[in-house]
């Protein structure tokens, strides 16, 4: 498969800074937006971590031994493995309580944030990927309107400048990788951020220009190779296959 083997651009600089052994090992696929959620969280919180790139087509034996599903993102923590992006983000909150928090302290506000993370996972991300893979004009139009509506609902909840107010939170983390890739939908699927309304454009720009997002973003030409497959609906990722089969995203 013609996937660039390592991170590039700003992300490559961050990788170089995180090669020393640490208690926490971050197994990463540089191109994956789900993966970027965890990477953003690690950078925001300032947790020491060792970065290890996983080639999705040539997974090393040790990685498969600790994580038989072979999924990225994954972490190895004190010799034990965990995976699933949002589970990992929550784990970092609980395992590293003395580092920068990404969820509110107040129980109600924390639960409210989780509701909108759930909305992101069940509504925004599936609509985003449906639009990316849609081939007919009719399919694209329907998916685009679904995405606008899903993003509009979240935008109406944003307190500003970030979802919970002044502090960057896991709701922002959950959305940021796809916001940073919206240019792909704009260039190839007629997506227009301004059509969402309710302040989405301003909110999205704040996410896309957040330092942790910029630092974990790779060169556009390397990402384009990945997304060309989705645009042709030829990608073989679990997400792509689930959408083609009409199943929920894994």
Main traits of this protein?
single chain; 250 residues; alpha+beta; 4-stranded mixed sheet; 54% helix; 7% strand
Question: Short summary of the structure?
Answer:
The protein is of the alpha+beta class and 250 residues long. The protein is built from 12 helices and 4 strands. Helices cover 54% and strands 7% of the residues.
Can you give a write-up of this model?
The chain is built from twelve helices and four strands. With 250 residues, the chain is α+β, with helices and mostly antiparallel strands. α2 links the parallel β1 and β2. α2 crosses α7 and α5 runs parallel beside α7.
Strand order of the largest sheet: 2-1-3-4
Uncertain regions spanning at least 5 consecutive residues: none
Structure annotation, total helices: 12
Tell me the structural class.
alpha+beta
Question: Shape, please?
Answer: globular
Summarize the biggest pleated sheet. Answer: 4 strands, mixed
How do the SSEs run, as a string of H and E? HEHEHEEHHHHHHHHH
| Proportion of residues in helical segments | 40-55%
Computed CA radius of gyration, to the nearest angstrom? 18 Å
- In round numbers, the mean pLDDT is 95
Q: Compute the number of strand runs.
A: 4
First and last CA, distance = 22 Å
- The proportion of residues in beta strands is 5-15%
């Amino acid at each position: 498969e013609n996937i660039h083997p390592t991170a590039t651009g700003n992300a490559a600089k961050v990788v170089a800074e995180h090669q020393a052994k640490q208690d926490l090992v971050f197994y990463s696929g540089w191109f994956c937006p789900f993966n970027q959620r965890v990477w953003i969280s690690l950078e925001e919180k300032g947790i020491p971590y060792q970065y290890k790139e996983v080639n999705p087509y040539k997974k090393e034996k040790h990685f498969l031994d600790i994580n038989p599903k072979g999924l990225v993102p994954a972490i190895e923590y004190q010799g034990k493995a965990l995976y699933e992006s949002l589970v990992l983000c929550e784990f970092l909150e609980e395992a590293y309580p003395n580092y920068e928090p990404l969820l509110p302290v107040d129980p109600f506000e924390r639960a409210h944030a989780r509701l909108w993370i759930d909305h992101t996972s069940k509504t925004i991300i599936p609509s985003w990927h449906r639009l990316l893979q849609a081939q007919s004009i009719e399919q694209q139009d329907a998916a685009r309107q679904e995405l606008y509506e899903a993003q509009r609902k979240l935008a109406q909840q944003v307190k500003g400048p970030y979802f919970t107010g002044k502090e960057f939170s896991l709701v922002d983390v959950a959305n940021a990788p796809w916001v940073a890739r919206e240019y792909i939908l704009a260039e190839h699927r007629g997506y227009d951020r301004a059509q969402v309304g309710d302040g989405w454009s301003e909110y999205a720009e704040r996410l896309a220009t957040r330092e942790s997002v910029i630092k974990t973003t790779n060169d556009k030409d390397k990402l384009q190779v990945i997304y060309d497959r989705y645009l042709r609906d030829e990608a073989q990722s679990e997400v792509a296959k689930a959408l083609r089969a009409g199943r929920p995203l894994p």
